[in-house]
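Subject: Sanity check before I submit

Could someone independently write out the structure tokens for this chain? I want to compare against mine line by line before I put it in a report. The sequence has 505 residues.
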Amino acid sequence: MHLLNRHVLYETLLEKGINVRHHRKGAEKDYTGCRYLTENTAEDPDYLYICPYEDRLTAKSSDALYCRPWKEEDISPDTDYFLFPDLTERQLVNLMEEIFSEYRRIEERVRLAQASASPLFELCEAIADYFHVAVYFHDEHFLLRAYDRRLDLDDHPAFVYSPQYKTYVQAPSVLDDFRVNPEYRRTLKTQGVQFWVDPTSDHCCIYANQFYMNRYLGRLIIEKESFTPGLAHAAEYFSSAIHSALSQELVSGTATDPISFLLRSYAEKEVITKEAAANAAASAGWPENGRYVASTIRFYKNQINAYMIYGICTSIQNILPGCRMYHRGNRIYMLINLEIGNLTPADIRMKLAEQIRESLLKASLSDTFHELSDFPMYMQQAVVCLDYIVENQKTEWFCEYRQVAASVWLRKGSGILPEDVLIAPGLRELQHFDSENGSALYETLKAYIVNERSPVATSKALHIHRSTLPHRLEKIQELTGYNLNSARTRLHLLMSFLYLNEKRQ
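---
Independent answer below. Compare away.
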């Protein structure tokens, strides 16, 4: 696809103040270059041909350029042509050389932008220079992926800066306006270049939604207040360049947000290697060894739309520092770095409460894990938890896996999840603590659970004094957070001990 076509050329000539008449006959096409027409010319439809008056040669299959002293009655009405009644042949040649050189430079800039380290930003700046207006590209969560970096957006009423993502996001007031605007919501599904006129504010812009394999990736916005055939073609050309850059990101895995790309890979059922997870962590500045939880959210009502999903994602990311998200269908997948916001599972439940209840959602949370490369297993744990409360018509709007672990195990069997996420997570922590400190907390908890919390039987089994046991139990609860008065917690622990014992045999 070339930037210069019939409409673009005609509008460019008018902008330069050239007296020109444009006669359109055939289908639209792009121009590769400009040549002289000769008697032996085999006309290439991708070229413009300058028709010399002294030979009275007229083009038959290609677009042609005619200058004085040509008259319209001398030219076949069955062809496409441009007539310049005020220009000589030499002036016309110079003009065409100038215009084609100008558009070749623009196309070369686009090619260089696509090959640069930040293609989206470079493309936005090239588009801004072409249209002489502000240009933005926001993703599906209304985060500005790219914009003209020469603009100062700090005081822009439509955007606010997000320290978490180190970029700008659509202002809440603007999102609220979109939420109640059914005409705007319909634009989220449009294909190709469109012209938007906000009926409430008369704000105008050219926009082009970006899709990849039927998945909405965001929108290119060109703040142009008019829409002509030439502007439409130019916007289509630049939109194709943006789409190419986005596609390359997805294919190569070099998207700006590598953690969201990791979530996308999981949702698309792609294999996630330890190397891929390590690379994503390094790119995002997250440690491979930290404190993480996986979560999934499900819409359980049919009255949802794309805008609702995007708005919810944006709200959750604003209230949960260290949260990355990806939505597919009626699910949202989340990976949360607990150390960024110093969060606990209880904090997550509290922060999500209002958003989830108001939006009629159900959410689940995995156990805490420490190796980012284990993320697929723990995301599966969160998915299994959510499926369980939905399938069994539980009334909970938020559920942690540990609350239903025993029930899932009994109903589904041990084969549904790997061992590392099947057993109670605190046991690994106790084993690690014992190894580092020479203590016996793991065996203490095991004896306490197996002996049905009997202090006498537990102390006798461990060969310790009864006064030592409370101190050990207090340390165990401090390390694991387990409520040993909960029958379900004790059942999960007992099943975990039995499972580990079976493995040893």
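---
OP: Matches mine. For the report I'm noting this point. The mean pLDDT is 87.
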